[in-house]
Design a protein that fits this description.
six-stranded parallel sheet; four-stranded mixed sheet; 10 strands; 41% helix; globular
């Protein structure tokens, strides 16, 4: 359907066996709210176990979503920081991603092994990821170097980066915070305000825990109602522009 109100790119983070049912519910809920294309960010090996070992049916669901127009992207490897660093970098990583700053502290060889291992697991499950989103948007130089040799795009908190030509699409990702009471009260207002001021492209991040909190649900529903004139797009589609 051709629309005149710009585009909306919704990404659903942390898709893995422990969140599978919740993610499937969110995906159906988004469809009910007019979002027919979503980028699903899959954790290949949470707890260092391939996701297909825990929930084989998840691969079938992802395949069905992809047939319906969704994009499947790689979301780290295990989604947990394995090695802490000292000083300001760890402080920033903690603020940025909590315990999920997976690639902070890894050298280039370790980074490459983690990225390629995750990509291999997804391919074994029949998924061909074209893009990558780091957990918590915590990127490092080693990770960027690896992604430039591996994927067609990667997304940061403020931009989507196309690997082949180095161009970017600038748009901040609007994200709800649920880890503290303060974030649960303030982030819905930030998301609604950010959506109201967004340009041609509106990026909205969702996490499985967001639907546990009524204020967050209400904020997302309000944003989606006001975005009915926007056409839903995936990050794969944005990378082709």
């Amino acid at each position: 359907m051709h629309r005149h109100g710009g585009t909306i790119a919704v990404s659903l983070h942390d898709v893995e066996p422990a969140t599978f049912e919740r993610c499937a519910l969110i995906r159906d809920w988004l469809n009910d709210n007019g979002v027919d294309r979503v980028t699903l960010l899959v954790i290949p090996a949470p707890d260092l176990h391939p996701f297909t070992d825990r929930r084989p049916e998840m691969a079938d669901w992802l395949e069905e979503c992809a047939r319906g127009g969704d994009a499947i992207a790689q979301h780290g490897f295990q989604h947990r920081q394995a090695r802490r660093v000292h000083g300001p970098r760890q402080f920033v990583a903690k603020l940025q991603a909590g315990e999920c700053a997976e690639f902070v502290g890894l050298d280039i060889a370790e980074t490459r092994r983690a990225v390629l291992a995750g990509r291999r697991l997804l391919k074994l499950a029949g998924i061909q990821p074209r893009g990558f989103v780091a957990p918590g948007y915590a990127y490092t130089g080693a990770l960027r170097e690896t992604l430039a040799q591996t994927f067609e795009w990667w997304a940061g908190i403020g931009r989507l980066h196309r690997v082949p030509d180095g161009t970017t699409t600038t748009a901040p990702a609007l994200t709800l915070g649920t880890s503290t009471r303060f974030k649960r009260w303030t982030s819905p207002l930030v998301v609604r305000s950010g959506a109201a001021m967004s340009g041609d492209l509106l990026r909205l991040d969702l996490h499985p825990s967001d639907l546990d909190h009524p204020r967050c649900v209400q904020a997302v529903e309000r944003v989606l109602r006001r975005s009915r004139d926007r056409a839903a797009v995936t990050y794969d589609e944005l990378a082709l522009r």
